[in-house]
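help with this:

***
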Amino acid sequence: MISLTPESPEKSTNNSIIYNQWAQLILAMTGMIMIANLQYAWTLFVPELQKGFNASRAAVQLAFSLFIALESWGQPIAGFFIDRYSPRLLLTIASFMVGIGWTAMGLVKTLNGLYIAYSLAGIGAAFIYSGAVASGVRWFEPSRRGLASGLVSAAFGSGAALFIPFIASALKNQGYKMAFVSTGIFQSILIILAAQLMRVPPKKDSGTGKSAGTQQHHFTTVEMFKTLHFWLIYIMFLFIVTGGMVVTAQTKPFGQDAGIPSNIIVLAATINTIANGAGRIFWGIVSDKLGRYQTMFLAFTLNGLAMALVPYLGKNPFMFVFLFAMIMFTWGELYALFPAVNADIFGTKYAATNYGFMYSAKGVGGIIGSFVAALVAQLSGWSPVFFTGAVMSILAGCGALVLLRMPKPVPPDKKVNI
């Protein structure tokens, strides 16, 4: 029986396969794959929706902005419940929201209907994303936390690759309505099935990797807000996420403006999702060896350099595919590194809520990267869009070096009053 009761970790003696950390990781990844195309396949729908609603690109991209805003700004609320209650009922409800919202996008007749349907899917995606990320950091020790976060976030970053060829074919042969309806029903069913098996870890495997005498302090959200670390991390997240949102939302519009053949654009969109997911795993593993902040500096700087080259080289089909793939390969890891940093610094007990507030920066980045970027490109061309994103990425990398040199925050009960 599924009930909304406070989360209570099972005894560590439970040997069921369901309580195996890798089994739980696979379930979390399944949920992420099923919501991936909500974000990463969107760019394929934009021109078709413009025609279907006889609307401007900016008006259609506003729907994406609303989705990103609710999917990200809903994370703190989702995290609050995920930290305190069984994930099964929450994720089951969320799966219906995703399925109904995404399916309805193929049935609505007005832009307002599109906005409402995509927003509903965004709220559901917030709960699924929060539950999956929390599972990744809770079930694994710090030495494997980067890998676990990387695999979970890679499922979201690359999961759309499974859908893009089908969606591209459906758009060409059956229209956008059937593409929305068929994928909406399929993905919601699989999320429901995965949700029924998700569990919280036993207490002694909470992922702190500390003995009872040296156990890591678990910062509450209020305590986290009082640290400089959180605000620096939030700004870094905002800066790096914006550039990736540009690529996510504008791959097809930029490609069309640059005269890239449609089959190359579809290829780029597919490779983008693969590079996005591969980068999350690769940089997550690197961070376990090299260090979180050193990895951030390296990856974010490379991301900025690739973005700066797009206005110059992106009109060549080969360089269009290569540069966009490089941007996504050096961008997606933020969703592997920031959850790990959050758990490393602030603990795992309130990981979902605390990371939810960090992740909320994505909502601002989504608005800038879709709606604002479309307006700027329409008025001034694509160069200002990509140059601004490049600068923000490099500044995020520099922020990681500052964070590296900051001592860990002192828990309130350990502070000494003088």
Summary: Confidence is low (pLDDT under 50) at residues 8-13, 205-213. The chain is about 75% helix and 0% strand. Residues 303 and 327 are 5 Å apart (CA to CA). The longest helix spans residues 228-257.
